Amino acid sequence: MVNLTIDGKQITVSKTATIYEAAVEAGIKIPVLCYAKKLLPYGACRVCLVEVEQMKGRLIPSCTTPVTEGMVVTSISDEIRKVRKTVLEFLLVNHVIECPVCDKGGECDLQDLTYELGVNSNRFEGEKFNLPTDEVNPLIERNMNRCVLCGKCARVCDEIVGYGSYSFINRGFETKIATAFDRGLDCEFCGQCVSMCPVGAILPRPFKFKARPWQLREVDSVCGYCGNGCTVTFGVLNDKVETIRYNDKNGVNDGNLCVRGRFGYSFINSGDRLTKPLVKKGEQLVEVEWDEALKAVADGLKKAQAENGVGILSGARLTNEEFYLLKNLAKLIGTGNLDHSGGECYKGVTEGLLATLGICSSTGTFPQVEQADVVLSIRSDFYETHPVFGMVVNQTVKRNKAELFIVGDKNGKFGKLPGARTLLHKPGLEVNVLNSMSQVLIEDGLAVTEGVEGVDALKKSLAAYTPEKVEATTGVSAEEIRVAARALAGAKQSAILLAYGLPYTAQSKEIAIAAANLAILSGNIGKGESGLYLCGEKANSQGAIDCGVLPSAGGMGAQQMLEAAGQGKLSALYVVGEDPMTSFPDRSKVEKALMTADFVVVQDLFLSPTAELADVVLPAASFAEKNGTFTNAERRIQRVRPGVPSPGEAKTDYDILTLLAARLGEKVNFTGPAALFAALADEAGYTGIDYEKIGPQGIVWGGETVTVKKKMLVFVDGAKPIAGDFLLLTGSALYHSGTMSTRATGPQAVVSEAYVEFNFEDAKGLQIVDESVVSIKADGIELKLKAKVGKRLPKGVLFAPYHFSEARINSLYKGEAAISVQVSK
Amino acid sequence: MIREFIKGLSITFKHMLPGNSTTVQYPRKGHRLPTAERFRGLHRLVPAQDREKCVACYLCPTVCPAKCITVESAENEKGEKYPAVYKIDLLRCIFCGYCVEACPVEAIEMTGDYELANYKREDFTFEKQRLIR
Q1: In which domain, by residue range, is B46 found?
Q2: What is the pTM for the complete model shown?
Q3: 3-state secondary structure of A637
Q4: How far apart are CA A631 and CA A644, in angstroms?
């Protein structure tokens, strides 16, 4: 610690702090333009100049100068004010004064400073820029005439996003921020640059001219897309979410968001939202009153339960409280057939981890990953499914020089990070590679075996997984496997990342077990702040597991329910917040189940392909209309708050489930989410957590590091390589999450339809170029998709995202790791 | 004494002669009375070449103490910001003139027009078309 004096105030700060940070801690305000807490110090704007007693003769930039013992700082004096004013005058020489039409007006740092320092006239004259604005892309508008060259956009894109879209070009007065070759922006569109820009040079295009910042009501909530659980702040105007505001004070995401979080909110305001309950009369779904719809549902479910039974399929974007109500409803109906999204994948992963570690959640929290020195990411789509957690990994690798290994079947964004090594295997062989890494650890005597069960059995079974043998089957070089395994064992603090989701159902149990084995053997489990991270695809996947939205003893899981319904062994299906027709593997199976079941209820926001086949459709509310809690992938319970009312007569799942339960004879009526949370806390493992005390940072259940219940090694056999000239993989695209984002204009503006991605060599061989329509055939089913050619995929591998309903990817994808397909033009 | 009396009455009677009255037969004659230059009457949106001068910066609705101004901005085909909706509810307006003072582009003025009576409540809401003059 270092002692210093700022404006006569004695303070003690850590020795790595800068003068600016010390001043912030002491509550002294120093103006800044180019400083941001999450970025490295830069010192571009010179607005934060201060006087330091020990460095007399010149003014010192406080944001880049580290503190030293006994430093005496003056943060404001006449001289400092004069210099700051001059700096602003310089900036205003070429900054166009178009505040009335600039959307930043009202929250612009330059505007505020100019006002604060009273810069009413300018002693300098110069030309105003008249550069063309970048309005080509649909999400981010750049007007470089307003730029003050603070470099925040370039820095955030490089340091945190790891994309590197921007840099300074030209010199002197002509300097500006530009993309490569000064073209239009073509990037991830995460909008991090938008959130960082202190002036109106980079703005969100969907919000253009919509409102002034002071008109917006800010509501803190949690993003409803992936399991990362980023906090978002809605900017609400006239009961409509108009934008997502920058807020780095809440949650663990430091204000970082991805394209979905920042621009994917528009489905909330969509005109396609269901506003009235629908009941099938004849062949048509007809709008009816709630009373009639609820009666139909209650009667239908009762009747079905008396016949062959009811199955309840839930999505993973309900709040914890709603999950609890759903579980109660299942009990009330008397069915044990309850499951959430996909079943297979979620169930597989949880079963796998329960068998080996006795828990089914991440063992650490996201901030701990930042300190790791070795990171292993399993599955190459990790950045696509959890972009903001991906940004944490970016920082770990770029700032802390952590070693990053990726076990994946395609090259991804992570692979481009400095020093990252991709263990590129043939599709579906993750387990083989992980097993081989475990084998190396045991063979080299690096394995941690103290207090571990099943070591000898595993050792014997793993004999077939020497790196050399695995190299032959998977294509990953033996040397790479050895390097990765040894690095993981030698790490002071490591992180193993495992994402799961609907398009990744193949071998999920096996992968979970193999990853847990590796975590145990490498000492990842139980070593300080190291951790195994289990990242669910949806906003409340972890909550669904915690609340036990799983088949009860003797009950059927998701896939079994669909199978039973297809064979007429299940009379009713109640689908809540999920579109199985689009997102579940094997569309024909889902379709058959929905057609055969006598009674189908769908509770959703939109008339999805699943809802079209329903007997009753209940209009539900989006995450922005709900009150409750979500539990994210690091076990953080965070508050979801309603920002807007539901459109028309749509109701929250909470209300619907309560009304339905009352009709089915429920006597208990909860007063609200807080009461429900108290009721579910013990069952879900949230004991001792008070709903009212969940603050802006949320509460992590089980503490920062969870102690595993056991360390049990279980052998799982790897898979055989899948034969075929072309193997089609499905998965998540960066711009989308589940099927909901296809209803949002932001993500749709970037990727609006399904595509199939080719390796450029394959494409050349098949004479395919971008945008050409290709036919993909397997099992007698033919899909026509637009092609996208790139360098990401290895030869012979194709990729198609699963989000788009009309593309019918799941008519080919039946839950396998990769599908052997024929490709023709 | 009588002389002074006559002198005084002559001034009085002079006013009774035609053309010397200060009383205006409003509203039967002389529909519009002259107002002072700084009189604050009905607002006017100043037109520019092919559009209104207003750039929809929202300063007038923000500063308005009576909250009687509604602005909705939008982007026109040239990519400029313009007021798609500009409404003043005169039943709420207190004619303080803050909107004029706040306007950064001198797009709103107050005219001498004080005849603002109407038969229907709706007619007191002045839309953009009625304000541009």
Answers
A1: 30-131
A2: 0.92
A3: strand
A4: 22
Is B86 a member of any domain? yes
Listed residue (A38, A10, A194, A22) closest to A107, CA to CA = A194
Query: Do A730 and A801 form a contact (C-beta atoms < 8 A)?
Result: yes
DSSP type of residue A38: T
Is the distance from CB of A341 to CB of A578 less than 8 angstroms? yes
Taking an 8 Å cut-off on Cβ atoms, the answer to whether B62 and A212 are in contact is yes
> Mean of the pLDDT values across residues A199-219?
94
CB contact, 8 Å: A215 with chain B?
Answer: yes
Residue among A99, A135, A214 whose CB faces B62 most closely: A214
Residue A342 has pLDDT above 70, yes or no: no
β-pairing, A421-424 with A403-408? parallel
Q: Is A27 left (phi over 0), alpha (psi -120 to 50) or beta?
A: left
Q: Do B104 and A99 touch (CB under 8 A)?
A: yes
DSSP secondary structure letters along A435-487: HHHHHHHHHTT----TT-BSHHHHHHHGGGG-HHHHHHHH---HHHHHHHHHH
Number of domains in chain B: 1
- List pLDDT tens digits, range A485-509: 999 999 999 999 998 888 888 888 8
Q: What is the CATH number of the domain that holds B91?
A: 3.30.70.3270
C-beta atoms of A211 and B58 within 8 A: yes
Residue at token pair 């529909």: B31
Q: Say whether B55 and A210 touch across the interface (CB within 8 A).
A: no
Q: Let me know if residue A220 belongs to a domain.
A: no
CB contact under 8 A, B73 and A214: no
- Min Cα separation A190/chain B (Å): 24
- CA–CA distance, A661 with A328 (Å, rounded to integer): 8
pLDDT of res. A501: 85
> Distance (Å) from the C-alpha of residue B81 to the closest C-alpha of chain A?
6
Indicate the residue type of A678.
A
Q: Is residue B1 part of a domain?
A: no
pLDDT one-digit tens code per residue, A744-788 = 999 999 999 999 999 999 999 999 999 999 999 998 899 999 999
Q: Please count the residues of chain B.
A: 133
Query: CA angle at residue A205 from A203 to A209, to 5 degrees?
Result: 85
Give the C-alpha separation, B131 to B117, whole Å: 16
How many separate domains does chain A show? 3
Question: Which residues does chain A have within 8 Å of residue B62's beta carbon, measured at their own beta carbons?
Answer: 212, 214-215
B104 vs A100: CB contact, 8 Å cut-off? yes
In a domain, B15, yes or no: no
Nearest CB to B74; choose among A100, A133, A209: A209
Looking at the complex, report in whole angstroms how far the Cα of residue A101 sits from the nearest Cα belonging to chain B: 6
Distance CA A232, CA A221 (A): 5
- Domain annotation covers residue A795: yes
CA angle (B51 as vertex; B49, B57 as ends), nearest 5: 120
Domain assignment present for residue A57? The answer is yes
Give dist(CA A256, CA A362) in Å, integer. 21
**Encoded tokens for A681:** 């806390």
A214 has a chain B CB within 8 A of its CB: yes
What CATH number should be reported for the domain holding residue A46? 3.10.20.740
Q: Is B73 on the interface with A (CB under 8 A)?
A: yes
- Average per-residue pLDDT for chain A: 92
Q: Is residue B80 part of a domain?
A: yes
Using the Cβ of A588 and the Cβ atoms of chain B, whether some distance falls under 8 Å is answered with no
Domain of residue A756, residue span: 726-824
Subunit contact A209:B58, Cβ cutoff 8 A: no
Residue A748, strand partner residues = none
Closest partner CB to B73 (pick from A99, A209, A214):
A209
Residue A60 DSSP code: E
Q: Is residue A607 part of a domain?
A: yes
Q: For residue A320, give the CATH number of its domain.
A: 3.40.50.740
- Report the residue of B60, B81, B99, B105 to disrupt the A interface, i.e. the one with the largest count of A CBs within 10 Å: B81
Tell me the pLDDT tens digit for each residue of A67-85: 999 999 999 999 999 999 9
